[in-house]
Amino acid sequence: MERHLQREINNLKARLLAMSAVVEKRVADATRSIADRDPELAQSIMKGDYEIDELEVGIEEECLKILALHQPVAIDLRFIIAVLKINSDL
């Protein structure tokens, strides 16, 4: 069961990093759209916001599933709580 928990935590890390990369690209694109005064780029960024919302919901559900099924303690619990907070801030 410990290996299963670690596998799920590693999957959670990968999902959070992937979401962070998407958010980082969107912020760079938003900055460029402002600097270049490009309304089409700004519009496409706003239309693509649902993708980040879906990633956020998926990560939150994964955290809750891990908490419910594995009842992690110590460092694993702190990591999952940190992921929940980071996820909502992104």
Explain what the structure shows.
The structure is a single chain. The protein has 90 residues and is mainly alpha-helical. It has a single domain, classed as Methane Monooxygenase Hydroxylase, Chain G, domain 1 (Up-down Bundle). It has helices at residues 2-35, 39-47, 49-70, 74-89. The longest helix is centred in the first third of the chain and has 34 residues, at 2-35. The mean pLDDT is 93.
Write the layout of secondary structure elements.
Layout: H1 2-35, H2 39-47, H3 49-70, H4 74-89
Short description:
The protein is mainly alpha-helical. Helix content is 90%, strand content 0%.
Please supply descriptive tags for the structure shown above:
single chain, 90 residues, mainly alpha, Methane Monooxygenase Hydroxylase, Chain G, domain 1, 4 helices, 90% helix, 0% strand
Major sheet size, sense and barrel closure: none
User: Which geometry do the CA atoms define?
Assistant: elongated
- Which residues form runs of ≥5 with pLDDT under 50? none
Q: Helix content range of the residues, please?
A: over 70%
User: Structurally, how many domains make up the residues?
Assistant: 1
- Determine Rg (CA atoms, Å): 16 Å
- End-to-end separation in angstroms reads 31 Å
User: What is the CATH class name?
Assistant: Mainly Alpha
In percent terms, what proportion of residues is strand?
A: under 5%
Briefly note the structural class of the backbone. mainly alpha
Reported by name, the CATH topology is Methane Monooxygenase Hydroxylase, Chain G, domain 1
Gross CATH architecture: Up-down Bundle
CATH 4th-level superfamily = Phosphate transport system protein phou homolog 2, domain 2
Number of helices: 4
H/E series: HHHH
Mean of all residue-level pLDDT scores:
93
